[in-house]
Write a structure and sequence with these properties.
alpha/beta; TIM Barrel; two-stranded parallel ribbon
Length: 308
């Protein structure tokens, strides 16, 4: 009955503004929702940036610079900057903000996948911005590139920054990729695995798949050498959080992963999802890990050693 690290992924790059009015777009909205999520119980805040004028995903460090210091000043949460960015970005673009700001954590995708969003376009009756429809429909041809060279480049580029990673595994093969980098010495024991379910192009959101992913990770890494967490897309978000907690894992919620709070009802904010998972965990006898707990469990360098 231990402490569970709650990560909250605030905005991402997959959902578009027309899908939900609650999706934070501007730096001010991203900062506000991040602070509220941290106060609700999230120990880690996972961040992407968007162009404030139309919500398009952007890798621009200057945009990140408008909300990162605000979040740091208002909370003690661990800030986790994406190196995934978007399937439409190059690796140097995806790395730009992390290189400038040297955060405690970054996400790191552990393999190349198809990353498809196009079925969502049929559900949108009116578009807020011209780019959204083509972005969603064009995802039937997206390849989210994360080659062995790309992964090594990201690991090596941030090695001197003391940044640790949320290793995002969208399929079983990604766990084997992670084991490869562990064998090469580019990743050290104590790493953090985020198992991802329900993305079209990755492993499906079936409960048996979660069990299989966890068993595979234990076999590859050993039970005591890593921390692990689960996120599931859309309606699978909360059921998979419950299953992860039952198995001794950590959880991730947030509007990047699901726009809903209940069946057919859009979430009003990221904090609403954090509050819900906190209540669920409490009923199971767990409590949210504090940022200090998360830093200790994940071996992080501390919020005083970042460049924002």
């Amino acid at each position: 009955m231990g402490k569970v690290i709650i990560s909250c992924a605030i905005t991402g790059s997959a959902h578009t503004p027309s899908m939900s009015d609650a999706l934070p777009i501007t730096p001010e909205q991203i900062a506000e929702q991040s602070i509220a999520a941290a106060r609700a119980g999230a120990a880690i805040i996972h961040l992407h940036a968007r162009l404030p004028e139309d919500g398009r995903p952007t890798p621009d460090p200057d945009v990140y610079g408008r909300f990162l210091p605000v979040i740091k000043q208002a909370t003690d949460a661990v800030v986790n900057i994406t190196t995934g960015g978007s399937a439409t970005m190059t690796v140097p673009e995806r790395l730009a903000a992390a290189v400038r700001f040297r955060p405690e954590m970054c996400s790191l995708n552990m393999g190349t996948i198809n990353f498809a969003l196009f079925p969502a376009a049929a559900k949108i009756a009116a578009w807020k911005h011209g780019w959204e429809r083509d972005y969603l429909l064009g995802s039937d041809d997206f390849v989210f590139r994360n080659t062995f060279r790309d992964i090594a480049t990201i690991l090596e580029t941030l090695a001197d920054a003391g940044t640790r990673f949320e290793h995002e595994c969208y399929d079983v093969g990604h766990l084997y990729n992670l084991a490869h980098f562990l064998d090469r010495g580019l990743i050290e024991p104590g790493f953090f695995v985020q198992m991802i379910f329900g993305i079209l192009g990755g492993i499906g959101a079936d409960p048996d798949n979660l069990i299989f992913m966890k068993q595979t990770a234990d076999r590859l890494f050993g039970r005591d050498t890593y921390q692990w967490s689960v996120l599931a897309a859309g309606r699978h978000q909360m059921p998979f959080a419950i299953q992860a907690a039952l198995l001794g894992g950590h959880v991730r919620v947030g509007l990047e992963d699901s726009l809903f709070i209940d069946r057919g009802r859009l979430a009003a904010s990221n904090a609403e999802q954090v509050e819900k998972v906190v209540r669920i965990l409490a009923e199971m006898g767990h409590e949210p890990a504090t940022p200090a707990d998360a830093r200790a469990m994940l071996g992080l360098k501390g919020g005083d050693r970042v460049d924002f």
